[in-house]
Amino acid sequence: MNSHMEPRQTEQFDDDEISLVELATTLGEEKKLVFGLPFVVGVAAIVVSLFLTPIFTAKTTLLPPQNSGGGGAAAALASLGGLAGLAGISTGGTTADTVIAMLQSRSAKDQIIDQFNLVEYYEAELREDVYRTLDNVVRVTSDKKSNLITVEVDDKDPELAAKMANAYYEVLKSLMTRVAVTEAQQRRQFFEDQFAKAKEELSNAEVKLKETQERTGLVELKSQAEATIEAVARLRAEIAQREVQLSAMRTFATPENSDYRRVVAELNGLRAELKKLDKGGTGGELGLVSAGNLPEQGLEYVRALREVKYQEAVFEIMAKQFELAKVDEAKDGGNVQQLDVATVPERKSKPKRALIVVLSVLAAGFLAVLLAFVRAAMRKAAADENSQQGFQALKKAWSFKR
Q1: What ranges do the domains of the chain cover?
Q2: pLDDT of residue 388
């Protein structure tokens, strides 16, 4: 059995040796092609790379707002009492992905295009063409570990590249000012809207009170009636406070939440107390005269004055909350910071001439070897009648002339 296997193995080794020799022979016969094509392509790559426009890359590093967790804000809001629950408003901070999306948004691109007149600079017919160009020349990336944002801008003008990179920092700041993305910014925006609404309603109530005074001639009330108005105004202000608190809590809490249910219970109790005062009750422990027992001729004035007191209380609450939210926003790190300012690059980043030449030569060498084997196969087929017939059949099959 061994005597039969040894000749087969020897024959296989001889075939492998002959195949390698044939391959080497084929490459030797086509040595001009194998060495000539890479040489010509290499020279052409050197010449072409010398004529390519040098590109410079400017880079800036940004530090996005960090997650605050709302700890400081919650403590500050707690010092003001009932609205402390609003500290639960949270968007989870500003992530690097959010900042990248803002920098790549159409709003950011439009500001850059208008600032540097890029439509004319890139000689583009449409603004959409400039958008695509910016996608190619501007790269915005983030480091997952450090959370740093890197903005890189490529351009043939190194000064323009640096200016554009730094401009993205200013654009991001303006976008973050216009769009509230951090917890503190959303809280400030929420109370700013509530403050503006309270201010307008207080102004309307004061105008209405003045008109009522001019019509009825009443300018003073007894102390007991004044106490009733003050109590009703306080209750209505507290009710409005709880309603605002519930409106904010709905963004992060369910009706089954213990804090949510507690606020609902407090709100129902305050409404019941207010209803008792308005309908003529004794006011419980307040010991006050009900609005229903006031003289008919002064009732209109009382209601107008009560509305003013109520709006004043709401205005005072919202003013404090708004001022607190602005301070909290300033402390919260809501503004992006520029860690490294983009400077004018001194060395070009593109084209990489050495890499272009090496890759061109390697590709040409691979192509030359492939062509050498193809030519050798064609010569061998030309000497074989069966192969010639096969080539004729293949040529006829792919011919469009019938």
Answers
A1: 14-52+353-397, 56-182, 197-331
A2: 67
Distance CA 78, CA 90 (A): 16
Question: What pLDDT is stored for residue 80 in this prediction?
Answer: 42
Structure tokens at 332: 């919260």
β-strand pairing of 138-142 with 149-155:
antiparallel
Q: Are 52 and 351 in contact (CB under 8 A)?
A: yes
Query: What's residue 152's pLDDT?
Result: 94
Looking at per-residue pLDDT, the higher value among 104 and 217 belongs to 104
Cα–Cα distances (Å) from 125 to 107, 121, 135, in that order, read: 20, 11, 17
Residue 250 tokens, joined: 């709905």
Residues 279-333 pLDDT 10s? 654 444 344 444 454 455 466 777 777 788 888 888 888 888 888 777 776 665 4
Token look-up 């740093």 returns 148
Q: What does the pLDDT look like over 373-382, one tens digit per residue? A: 877 777 776 6
- Which two structure tokens, joined as six digits, stand for 350? 């593109």
Instruction: Kindly give the pairing relationship between strand 56-63 and strand 337-340.
Output: antiparallel
> For residue 250, what pLDDT is reported?
73
User: Are residues 344 and 165 in contact, defined by beta-carbon separation less than 8 angstroms?
Assistant: no
> How many whole angstroms separate alpha carbon 75 and alpha carbon 84?
8
pLDDT confidence of residue 135: 92
CATH 3.30.70 fits 56-182, yes or no: no
